[in-house]
Amino acid sequence: MSRMAGRGSGPKGAAGAGAPLLRLERVEVVRGGRTILEDITLEIRPGEILTIVGPNGAGKSTLVKVVVGAIMPDRGRVWRRPGLVIGYVPQRLALDPSMPLTARRFIALVAGAGEGEIAAMLARVGTPHVFDRQMTALSGGETQRVLLAAALLREPDLLVLDEPAQGLDQPGEAAFYRLLEACRREAGFAILMVSHDLHVVMSTSDRVICLNRHVCCTGTPAAVEAAPEYRALFGTGTGGALALYRHSHDHAHDVDGNCLPKKPSAVTDAERPADGGTTDAAD
Amino acid sequence: MPLIDTLRAAFAEPFMQRALLAALAVAAMAGPLGSVVLWRRMAWFGDATAHAALLGVALAFLADLPAPLGILAAALVAALFLHVFSRRETGNDALLAVISHGGLGLGLLALVLSGGGRARIEGFLFGDILAVGWADAALAVGLAALVLATLALRWRGLVLSSLSADLAVASGVRPRRENALLLVMLALVVAVAIRITGALLVSALLVIPAAAARPLSRTPEAMARLAALIGMLAALVGLSGAWVLDAPAGPAIVTAALVLFLLAAPFGRRR
After folding, report:
1. Exposure string (b/e) for A136-147, b if CB count within 10 Å is 16 or more?
2. Which of residues 199-218 of B touch A (CB under 8 A)?
3. What is the ipTM of this complex?
4. Residue A136: closest CA among chain B residues belongs to which residue?
């Protein structure tokens, strides 16, 4: 594990420096006699993108809930920087139909924002038309965008997203992550993200944590995908995760979903013009 | 207009004025609280605490204390019990049903065996709003002011924790604390509302006006306000009807609320 702890000397090294926003120390969560998380120690630093990958039942959502404070660990410590503001985009929002709730009222409740700000942010995330709609009438993708708008309007130090692209189609997903990256560049918040989407993990993260109840391995995307622990979890198959990653560069989709042939590194370069450093392994 | 004259004469009576004042005050706080109860699927809560309150009446009689004190104490203990043992993810239904029906059976038995008198049972089961004194009415008004002010202050936290406990925590709200506050307010309202509708119908005042307001509302706040107004209208219409028909006031108020619910229901489908 220690051999992977070092970071590449990419431009984001500076953003990741400084006092951490949040630190988990030897966190353990037990539910119904079953250990869901074991000996989790991790740190989130200002401005970095940390992604958690892992198979189903690995405790990814549980870990996210520990981070936002919704689950108290049975053992270990959670330290948050005093005054830390978290923006949380849950995996899904199960709304009871007995509560009438418009999108703008929902966002106002979460973020305490004014009408003008809410309308502007909804336009920014690409769903201006839902402003006055009932939350229960929104599609999965619209709900995700409203949740993101609410989280962003909290002006968070740390944005926590649990499988945020669920319910989005492929071009919608790409647009969602581009938007997320643009907002992060502007506001400079850190991101903790759960994803089962290896493509996304590899192309946008500073650090990856591979979770399977405990931290299997951690490090830069390049280090993690080369780690035997990671390959054991996701299978080596014909070349394993690396091949999957390369495959994603054989072509790309534009926002309309059309297939575009292109040279291998084009997607990465287009999406992350400022940092080639973390994606060297693909080239 | 003989009906108007009859009602004018009715509300000239001091006991009708006291009854109306108390009923309006209870309806004003029961509407918003009932809305929160619906959102959290806790509709059984009113019944559970009201039935447990009967046990409080018997205990107060045995201890030679005033009945309202016993009701309040029992309602608060029931609320505390629910707070400690409730887990939203497993649902409160079974626990509430046990407290509700267990409390009713035990309370009725204790009331009779303690010598509290069979005669008083009817008053506690069906309400005795026409016997409300000025002190009781003033208490109801004061409590309504307190509960409404508390709701206004803590509204964001209450609504957010009803929406999603996880999202509430991440937004700096403590759902367990909001839950405890809600249960205490509900216990207070139930303890006062028992005089009006009786233990059997107390949760009707919480749930029916809120359910009537649902199809007519687009935001949580609108639903809470409208539920208060519908409850107050039901109190006025119900009391008037009780006078005209010479019927018991509590059931008349609940029936008026039911009629308003049925009138509002069709609007839900059109939306």
Report:
1. eebeebbbbbbb
2. 214, 217-218
3. 0.87
4. B218
To the nearest whole Å, the CA of B205 is away from the closest chain A CA by: 17
Give me the domain span that covers residue A57.
2-85+155-280
Q: Give the count of domains, chain A.
A: 1
> Which positions in chain B touch A98 (Cβ < 8 Å)?
38-39, 41, 214
Closest by alpha carbon to B202, among B223, B212, B188? B188
pTM: 0.82
CATH number for A256: 3.40.50.300
pLDDT in tens, B44-59: 778 888 888 888 888 8
Distance from CA of A102 to the nearest CA of B (A): 6
Q: Say if A260 falls within a structural domain.
A: yes
With CA atoms as reference, report the closest residue to B215 among A98, A130, A138: A98
- Residue A261 forms part of a structural domain: yes
Cα(A28)–Cα(A73) distance, integer angstroms: 6
pLDDT mean over B248-261? 93
Confidence band for B117, pLDDT divided at 50, 70 and 90? low
Q: Which position has the token pair 């030897």? A: A26
Tokens encoding A222 = 């390049």
Q: Is the pLDDT of residue B233 over 90?
A: yes
Least confident segment among A12-16, A99-103, B113-117 = A12-16
- Residue A11 is assigned to a structural domain of this protein: yes
Domains of chain B, each with CATH number or no CATH: 2-266 (1.10.3470.10)
Which residue among B40, B171, B220 places its CB closest to the CB of A101? B220
Task: For residue A186, count other CB atoms closer than 10 A to its CB.
Answer: 9
Determine, yes or no, domain membership for A224: yes
Residue B127 in tokens: 């309400």
Q: Which residue has the tokens 């539920």?
A: B227
Interface of B with A in 162-201 (CB under 8 A): 162-167, 169-171
Mean pLDDT of chain A: 76
